[in-house]
Amino acid sequence: MEQYAIKGGNPLVGEVEIGGAKNAALPIIAAAVMTNDTIHIDNVPDVRDINVLLQSMKELGVIVNRQDRHRLTLNASHIHGLVVNDDNIKKIRGSYYLIGSMLGKYKKVEVALPGGCNIGSRAIDQHIKGFRALGAEVKIEHGLIKTQAERLRGNHIYMDIVSVGATINVMMAATMAEGTTIIENAAKEPHVVDLANFLNSMGANIKGAGTDVIRIKGVQKMHGTDYTIIPDQIEAGTFMFGAAITRGDVTVKNVIPKHLESISAKLQEIGCEVEESDDAVRVVSAKPLRHSHVKTLPYPGFPTDMQPQITVALGLSQGTSIVTESIFDNRFKYVDELTRMGASIKVESGNMAIIDGVKRYTGATITVPDLRAGAALVMAALAAEGISIVEEIHYIQRGYEDFHLKLQSLGAQIEIVDSERELQKFKLKIG
Ligand code: EPU
User: Fold this and answer.
1) Which pairs with CB-CB distance under 8 Å and at least 24 residues apart come from 259-262?
2) Which of 121, 122, 328 to mutate to test the pocket of ligand 1 (most atoms within 8 A of CB)?
3) Could you tell me the pTM of the whole model?
4) Beta bridge partners of 275
5) Where are the beta strands (DSSP E) in 8-162?
6) Mean pLDDT per 10-residue run, the chain (431 residues)?
7) Three-state SS for 126?
8) Which end of the chain is more exposed for a tag (fewer CB within 10 A), N or C?
């Protein structure tokens, strides 16, 4: 099993290119089935979740060509089935975006219930409510979500909670429904807007994405397009917090600073300097970190996908901090691992971490529980005294391309090892 071997103590210093947003790429790729024309997509991250989705789409008959590492063409004119139930698809969350896209185009699809990171219960009632409101029948049987409709008809849908996935899925299905759909209390995340822009470039008529109310006028036909995915807000934020945690100086390049505002604001509050330019943000951590309180919220609030990273930083700050997780109900599992590195954190009611800052972390063998927590634990190990072994790194590879290589380019001592011998070699090399 591959692991990261890490020797902590080097600040991260330098520049790092941020890739395309995984959580935008997943629905955009799934939406490619909505036309028989060829779709070109640029800035697709080469990460495991995307590759799993592409593999499932190939099995459905979609022709997928990678023109280079980050540019894809997709053609879905010869789909030969409306059941998505291969072994891979259950591992990722984004698989359920094939419901919205295929229900929209074919008015029928069966998709295995989604997996994804285990960060709490992840209901899909709002997706189902939305599909039903558009006139689809929805059943769950034998681990499959089965949907079909004679016709989809636009409707007025109020989302009971703000859900990225439900907003995206219902928006896709409504794109090819008859008449107008209005989604109220919609998610406003940058990837929701990116998907709407992509669908509009395919001929859809969607207005209001990025606000609470999205208005979709159904169209009968979608066409080919050439589209570039937005930069990954969370990959950028992870490296920005990496600078804070390791007391470094990192410039994240190819980003949209507006998408990073809540992250930049918190970094400044805890004592970092943040400089923005057109498509880059520099974070310098020269002063001792200060405590803060933070609550995760839907965009433009502080993202739940940055909660472990800020917790790791606050674990090294002066004073007591409180981090409240308001999106998922079990997203502090990594705290046990961090505690083994010397952190002083108490989790109350499963959704609130009370953090007493410590002076330093110490290296340990730690197990990654999910994607974002994994990235945060790596940052903790990079700041820690001594050597850490990070296990179950496949979670990190779901969403971060070349994570260890990007960290190495910033001066980190990190390598992938998959045997005791390689670990010993790493230890000898770093002295
Ligand atoms: N929820 C419901 N009913 C629903 C849908 C959601 O109760 O029908 C609840 C969930 O249980 C959760 C909350 O609403 O408590 C928010 O869920 P949301 O639907 O917004 O999340 P998601 O679509 O499942 C996406 C990202 C997550 C990210 C969240 C929040 C993808 C593939 N996943 O998940 O990303 O944390 O939005 O921003 O886009 C990650 O990339 O590591 C990751 C976990």
Assistant:
1) 259/190, 259/230, 259/231, 259/233, 260/233, 260/236, 261/300, 262/300, 262/301, 262/302, 262/303
2) 122
3) 0.97
4) 282
5) 13-17, 38-42, 63-68, 71-75, 83-84, 108-112, 137-141, 144-148, 156-158
6) 96 98 98 98 96 92 96 96 80 86 95 72 90 96 92 97 97 98 98 98 98 98 98 98 98 98 98 97 97 98 98 97 95 97 96 97 97 98 98 96 98 96 93 77
7) helix
8) C
Q: What is the distance in A from the centroid of ligand 1 to the CA of 378?
A: 23
Residue 64 contacts residue 77 (beta carbons within 8 Å): no
Q: How far apart are CA 352 and CA 354, in angstroms?
A: 7
For residue 377, give the 3-state DSSP assignment.
helix
Identify the pLDDT of residue 120: 66
Encoding tokens for residue 187? 């998610």
Residues near ligand 1 (Cβ within 6 A) = 23, 26, 93-94, 117, 119, 121-127, 161, 163-166, 187, 304-305, 327-328, 371-372, 399
Element spanning 321, H or E? strand 320-324
Q: What is the dihedral sign for C-alpha 423, 429, 430, 431?
A: positive
To test ligand 1's pocket by mutation, which of 159, 161, 309 has the most ligand atoms within 8 angstroms of CB? 161
Closest CA to 111 of 63, 66, 163, 172: 172
Q: What is the CA radius of gyration of the chain?
A: 22
The two three-digit tokens of residue 268, written as one number: 């400044």
**Cα separations in angstroms, 320 against 120, 292, 301, 355, 368:** 26, 8, 22, 5, 25
Confidence (pLDDT) at 198:
98
The structure tokens listed for 374 are 């994994």
Tokens of 297: 């919220």
Rounded distance, CA 424 to CA 431, Å? 11
Active site residues: 117
Tell me, in angstroms, the distance from the centre of ligand 1 to residue 122's CA: 7
**pLDDT at 90 (0 to 100):** 75
List the structure tokens of 93.
């969350």
Q: Which amino acid is at 209?
A: A
